[in-house]
Amino acid sequence: MKKLETDILKILEEDCRYTPAKIALMLEKTEKEVCEAISRMEESGIIVKYTAIVNGERLSDETVQALIEVKVTPQKTNGFDAIAEEIYRFEEVKSCYLMSGGFDLAVFIEGKSLREVARFVTERLSTLDEVLSTATHFILKKYKIEGTVADSKDENGMRLSVQP
User: Fold this and answer.
1) d(CA 139, CA 95)
2) CA nearest 88: which of 72, 64, 112?
3) What does pLDDT average to in each consecutive run of 10 residues of the chain (164 residues)?
4) Which of 8, 15, 77, 123 is deepest in the core (most CB within 10 A)?
5) Which of 113, 109, 82, 114 is CA-nearest to residue 95?
6) What residues are paired with 136 via a beta bridge?
7) In terms of C-beta density within 10 A (0-12 exposed, 13-18 middle, 19 or more buried), how is residue 4 classed?
């Protein structure tokens, strides 16, 4: 990968709202060079998606997020890829990673309630033939999201209470 592309990626990872013109100014390049480099990275799949980091605690939308550790039986011809694909195609699944250690896949899901997440695990995920076991961990609070510190104070500037 060229230095220009590496530099552009660092900037976009920090804040994808930067325009090609601003990036060009930051890197002392022309806007055309930056646009062409970004286009190449999009076409080759280096840049997959541009997204916003959302602090869900500031929203009135009460979604439930969970990390599910999944142990699976890898297939002879496709290893972990085929079962991972089957799992990540579920609408509830936001991310799916092959892991080393005590479990095979880390699956991050989102639902409208604890019951909905539980239903996903019991009725959809655990019923797959290749799934040997699951362990569900509900995300209670996010302190840092994709390298960005989430605001840990409520609207009045007070720390959140841990007592009911």
Assistant:
1) 14
2) 72
3) 90 90 94 95 92 71 90 92 96 96 97 94 96 96 82 52 48
4) 8
5) 109
6) 68
7) middle
